[in-house]
Design goal:
The protein is α/β, with parallel strands linked by helices. It is built from eleven helices and 17 strands. The protein folds into two domains: about 130 residues, Lyase, Ornithine Decarboxylase, Chain A, domain 1; about 250 residues, Alanine racemase (TIM Barrel). It is elongated. The structure holds ligand LLP.
């Protein structure tokens, strides 16, 4: 909730900007770390969700590892103090340059997505006289029941290795002397709110483990990915995920053998609620059929509503009006799709009012673009008052 102190502060600032509630971030990290730690689970934060420097510092300080999907993310993780033995590198299209940088950094593990990629990592590791640790990303064919643009674990998706290719993968691993197989990796999708999806993933992982055993391949790391969803509809009353219930599903359904480690790659669940996009009303257009609120933020600052029809709570935080009006809340970009939502009921709004778009901490600032040669969106931070437990 934004207090008058927030509003007074925001009124002094140029908009748009991302406002980070670092206290909520710390509380979320602590809750996640405590729940994971109670089962000895390891959490690697998926940097793709948000690599804002202050966010990375807080996550590193709370003891999380880093899940990276580009050479630059690997570099950013290391620059922010994540130790190399807590950095993993995933992604369907790692370039030679990126693989070399990760080999030089001696990262913990490559999550490999194809036979061809295994051969390339082996060749590049050989040239450096190094051994690359490998987890195989397997496509478990588990439906995440989420938006089709963020579903990743079905055979029709480009990600992972399908189970019918696994024999070839094992033969390749046997023949590659510079690769060390350490585990299996899965990620079925993002913004998953139905916990049965994770249960189904566990059951599928259990089956696949049997198969690896039969082939004589010992699995040390079970990496079950990320995907835990947040409540975009109630950022105030439900500002933190139920990490205890989430991790307990894995505790109850995943068969973990002695000596095995269970790894997670959470992104959104750790950061989404801790930021809002703050913008100002530039113009109000009253029409016969529609009223438009034209903001100074658009798809260049937050593209999720336009790209995935994603819902974000939109609030006028400075209006004193008691009348409500339905507005189409739109941005300034020269594209019809630049609309945050149609028919949003808001207090009667005027030029200069402050608008908060909530739950924007994940896949918000990181997906900002310079389209229309827009300025880079700024970040503003709350003070930190809480110290965190470590993972
Ligand atoms: N691990 C892998 C292999 C992933 O591909 C992802 C996300 C994660 C972990 C982290 O997932 P999370 O815990 O954040 O759900 N831009 C989209 C989301 C794309 C997710 C991509 N992969 C959005 O705004 O909803």
């Amino acid at each position: 909730m934004f207090t008058q102190t927030h509003i007074n502060r925001f009124q002094q600032l140029e908009t748009p900007f991302y406002y980070y509630d670092l206290n909520l971030l710390q509380q979320t990290l602590t809750a996640c770390a405590e729940a994971a730690y109670s089962y000895n689970y390891h959490v690697h934060y998926a940097l793709k969700a948000n690599f804002n420097p202050k966010v990375l510092d807080a996550i590193q300080a709370a003891g999380f590892g880093a899940d990276c999907v580009s050479g630059n993310e690997v570099k950013a993780a290391i620059a922010h103090g994540f130790t190399n033995n807590k950095v993993v590198f995933a992604g369907v299209g790692k370039s030679d340059k990126e693989i070399n940088a990760a080999l030089d950094a001696d990262i913990f593990c490559f999550n490999s997505e194809s036979v061809q990629e295994l051969l390339v990592i082996n060749e590049l590791a050989q040239a450096k006289n190094k051994i690359a640790r490998i987890a195989i990303r397997i496509n478990p064919n588990v439906d995440a029941h989420t938006h089709h643009h963020i579903t990743t674990g079905l055979e029709e998706n480009k990600f992972g290795i399908n189970t019918w290719q696994l024999e070839e993968v094992l033969a390749t691993l046997k023949s590659c002397s510079n690769l060390e197989f350490i585990g299996v990796h899965f990620h079925v999708g993002s913004q998953i709110t139905n916990m049965d999806v994770f249960k189904n993933l566990c059951l599928r992982v259990n089956e696949l483990q049997e198969w690896f055993d039969e082939q004589g391949f010992a699995i040390k790391i079970l990496n079950v990915g990320g995907g835990l969803g947040v409540d975009y509809y109630h950022p105030e009353s439900n500002s933190m995920c139920d990490f205890k219930t989430y991790f307990k599903i894995f505790r109850d359904y995943l068969k973990v053998k002695p000596g095995q480690e269970v790894h997670f790659e959470l992104g959104r669940a750790l950061v989404a609620q801790s930021a809002s996009l703050i913008s100002r009303v530039l113009y109000v257009k009253n029409g016969q059929k529609k009223n438009f609120l034209i903001l100074d933020a658009g798809m260049t600052e937050l593209i999720r509503p336009m790209l995935y029809q994603a819902y974000h709570v939109i609030e006028n935080i400075s209006s004193q009006s008691e009348n409500t009006i339905n507005y189409d809340v739109v941005g300034p970009i020269c594209e019809s799709t630049d609309c945050f939502r149609t028919d949003v009921q808001l207090p009667e709004s005027k030029r200069g009012d402050l608008i908060a778009i909530r739950t924007a901490g994940a896949y918000g600032e990181v997906m900002a673009s310079g389209y229309n040669l827009r300025d880079r969106v700024e970040s503003v931070y709350s003070e930190v008052e809480v110290t965190q437990a470590s993972l």
